[in-house]
Structure formats: structure tokens, C-alpha cells
Amino acid sequence: MKKLLLTICLLLAPAAGAEEYSPHWLERVEPNSVGMDAAGLKDIDAVVEQTIAIGHTPGAVVAIGRGNKLCFLKGYGYRQFYPEQEKITLDTLFDLASVTKVACTATALAVVVDQGKVSPDDPVVHYFPEFGVNGKDRITIWHCMTHTSGIMDYYNQTRGTKEELWKLLCGLGLRYPVGERFDYMDNNTLMLGHIVEKVSGQDLRTFTIENLYRPLGMLDTMHNPDAQRRKRAAATETRGDVWFKGVVNDYRSYHLGGVAGHCGLFSTAPDLAILSALWLGKGTLVQRDGKKVTLFSEATFEKMVAPQTVSAGLRGLVWDKRSGSKNRPWNMTPRAIGHGGWTGTSVWIDPSLDLFVVVLGNRRHPFGKTPNIYPTAARVGVIAVNAVRRESSGSPKSAARLPAALKGTRVVLIVDEAEIGRPGGLPARLKNDGVEIAALFYPDESKAESEGMTYQVVPKALKTDDQTGAPVYALTRDCPRVLPPAVHGAAAIVFAPTVSKDASDESFWFLTNVLGETLQSASDNGLKYGVADRPNPLERRRVEPLDLIDKYKPFASYARVAREQGLSFGEIARRINGDQMLGVDILECRGMDAAASSGASR
């Protein structure tokens, strides 16, 4: 009966009504006034309401804007069902979980870095000598900011006093060698929070309120909200018989008194819109009255958002950029930064589009067993990017016949699986023509996607190709990208799979997604991108999305347009390159008809 009641409540969940608009929030304007198509935002309601209806979160608030203006702010559903129902409000406080890492720690670090108190190159032991045991003496602040420190976890040992937990953190060993790989770990930003406290002489809650949130007008953002603000908080789970409402959900932060650099911050969607405007302003916020508030310089901003190559892709300093997170809108540009949180929170900021997207949910309420709403946050972001009015710049067409285009070049080659290992296959022919094959990839759509994966799992080579000696990898639904460890010193990625004339819409989308994802990989790794210049063999026809998920899955819009207009992969690649401002040098390569030599088809 209780489950039935909950389902009925979810289906009848209303949108938040009009409320008093706080003078501290960003100026609210119509989307058209900031270069966004208001009609283009209409699907946000359906995407969020569907997520609520299937029980993945009781409620959510979405905030979207450009620059220092807010053009979309709406609440949906409930902030709690138990112990009694409360409808969502625009000023609902959410437990941000790991969004704390950027809304608190990254922003605080930008301030102290700008003040010259901290450098990313500093060893952690410079601030805490006791941390240097068990091989951790080589860990720098940069390693912690990029999750490449290799430090172990202690999540199963979270109980104890703050002093006991500090000793536990300092005594940990290494899970991986320092700097070897990206390994997302709360202990990294937990330590960064301690460093901010050390150099500022204040606890993290006090420092951020006095130096970040109060000057910016973010009056509902803090660790450990007071009793009045807790009344407006979205509930999460129970501990014993007590519902957590305005009390941090994360065990580690909870046993540290609710104040930590990795989790524990509470905020509202309008407050995070202000923070987003600060980062879009490169460290300076222009408030509604025209007053400028500067927390850090443009030079520090550029340092914080500059791409850092790690094994899983690209990170900023603390910020995510493109490392496989499911909350990242796939169509944001390479300059985009963002982060998600375990409780159902997400913020993404794209300086190239002057755009921010905040999605806050409380998916841990009431039972703590629902999937994360990261895909919903990503779809909302995709809708927002699509609503930005701009002309596609395309990219210049540069056609060349192999082997002239790539002779003497070391390349990552994407081909049909049947071509690999076959005498006379495309990899062998290219090698004979003077092209050095660094790695081989083949698209494999058979592997199902892992719902629980948050950050990109780096695939291992499946075998070594007899004909070229190159390692062989699969491009799957889990990992359709060429990640840095698999580049192997290549200067270009070459996309040369074939499409049969009877390929299904799903198979064609999968190949288009591989094209888009690997084109982004070329951008991330500074590589050229070659595309086999073959006509599209599919019959031209209109393709309607099956549902909202199908409509907004990565690169689906390009696959539909290509099917309707008969576009080749080269034409699709140029569109993607221009729309997403990837800046990749694209070569459309002729003389690569693998199908003619092998009969391979999809």
C-alpha cells in the first residue's frame, strides 16, 4: 500500500508554483533576450516529469542561463514524501554530494591560488608532513585536483572522531602509483579541503561563507544549514528512524561533522546559477545592480579550467571536462566544465556558449535505491545547448587520396572487425602503403551499457593484430571513445567502418555515435581526423525518435539528419566539428573502400 501511494504521488507531482523571486538571485529574463529559443526548451518539462513519474526522484529544480542572466527556473514534484509530503519550491536546499567538490573546494582553491597561498605544484607534505608516509610523499595538489594521486580509500572505516579520521587519512597507502591513472576518489578533495583550512586559518564552512557565498549573494549555500534553512531542504534517507533533511547524506562527511571538501555542501538552484555566472565571468560576477564581485583573476580561471589529460579523458583542476561522466551534456563544447553528485545533482558550465545548466534532484529519497538521474541532467543540458541560437560553422572539407594523405603518419584506425587480421584487409594495406598503425579499433554494438558506471572505464587491448602488430580494442556502448592510453603516440584517428544498405536505424545510430565520440577524442587529444569518403548507402527516409530517451541520446540527431538527407560520415563529421567547436582538422580520405576488398558489411 505504501509503495502504491508513493507511485500515485509521483504521477500527480505538480510543478512548483510561482514564488517570491529573491533580489539576491540573478536577473530573470526571457530566453529570447539572451539568444535562446524559448520553444527549444519545451522538452525539459517532459524529460524531468518522466524521470519523476518512473520514480527516479521525487522532485527537481532546473536553472538555465547565459552570462549573468537566468532564463529558465522551474521546480517539479516534491522535496519529500516522508514523514509528510512537501512540494518542491524554487528555494529548496539540496544536499549537493560531490557537487561540493566544485561549488566549494574548486572555487575556494581558485581564491587561495589567486592569493598566492597555494600552488597546484606544491607537495601535500608541504602543508601536512604527517601525510607523507607509505609512498604518499610524491603526491602534489595537482594530483589531488585531477584524481591521479593513487591514494587508497577508507570508506568502510568512516566512524570515529575528526582527529581519528584525520590520522586514518594520513596513514593510508597507495592503490596505484602516483600519477599513473585517473582514479576518482573522495579522499583527494577531502585533503584539498584540509589544505584550504590550513592556509586560510578558518574551517571550510566559515571560509566559504565569508569569502565566497556571502560576497556573491549565495545566501542559502553552506555546510550544516541552520534550523530555518533545514525546513526548506529536500529529504534524503533515514538513519535509524530519523529522516535526513538538511543533514549530509554522505557517511564520511557526516562523521567529520558535516564539513568536508568532498561532500556536505547544501545549496539551491538559484544560488548555483550565481556560482555558474561567476565562472562564466572568469572569476568576476556582475550582480543585478551592476556591482562587480571578483573572487579570482582570469589567469587563475584559465588555470583551473585548462584541460588536463588523464587516463579517462580530460579533467580540469577539480572540475570534470570529458572523462566519461553520464551527467555531461554530450553536445557541449570542449571548454565545458561541470560535476555531478550522488544524490542526483549536476552543474555544467560552457564558457564557449556562455551557458550554464543546473539540475538538482533528491533521488536518494525515500528509499535510497533508485538509479542516479545523471542521464536526465545530461538530456536537460542537451536541450539547453540545442536552444542556443547560433549558426553552424561547419569545417573545411579537405579531401585526399590514400596513401598520400597519411603516408608516414602514425594513426589509430577504426575499421570493421572482419578487416582486422585479414591478409589484404584495410589495416594491412595501409601498413604496406607506409601508414604506421598505432592501434586498431572496431565498433561492437553488442555489449550492453552499464547503468551504474559514472566515469569512463579504460578498456584493455583484446589482442595484437598479426598483420600490423597493433593492439586491438573494441568501441562499445560502455566506451565508444579513444582514450589517452590507447592513442599510443598517434597523430590522427581514421574512421573507416562500412555500412550495409540494410543496416537498422539503431546500428546506424551506433556508428554515428562512434564517429562523434571519436571525433571528440581527436579534439581532446589534439589529433587530426580522417574519414573514409564513401556515399551513404541507406535509403533516405524520415526517422522519428521512439521516445524522449531515443530523441536525446548522443549524436542521435545527426544520425536522423544523415538518414533523411543521405549524408556521408564525412559530412556528418564536419557538422559535428562545427557545431561543437571541436577545432579538428578533418581529412576526407578516398581509396579506403574496405568493403570492396573484403565484402565486409554491417
Biggest sheet character: 8 strands, mixed
Q: Could you list the spans in which at least 5 consecutive residues all have pLDDT below 50?
A: 1-14, 594-602
Fourth-level CATH superfamily of the largest domain: DD-peptidase/beta-lactamase superfamily
What integer is the average pLDDT? 91
**Portion in beta strands:** 15-25%
- Identify the strand order in the major beta sheet: 18-25-24-23-19-20-22-21
Rg, alpha carbons: 25 Å
Number of helices: 18
3D architecture notes:
The protein is α/β, with parallel strands linked by helices and 602 residues long. The protein folds into three domains: 248 residues, Beta-lactamase, CATH 3.40.710; 88 residues, Methane Monooxygenase Hydroxylase, Chain G, domain 1; 200 residues, Uncharacterised protein PF07075, DUF1343 (Rossmann fold, 3-Layer(aba) Sandwich). Helix content is 30%, strand content 18%. An eight-stranded mixed beta sheet has the order 18-25-24-23-19-20-22-21, sandwiched between helices. Strand 15 and strand 16 form a beta hairpin. Helix 2 runs antiparallel to helix 12 and helix 3 runs parallel beside helix 6. The longest helix is centred in the last third of the chain and has 21 residues. The radius of gyration is 25 Å and the shape is globular. The N terminus and C terminus are likely disordered.
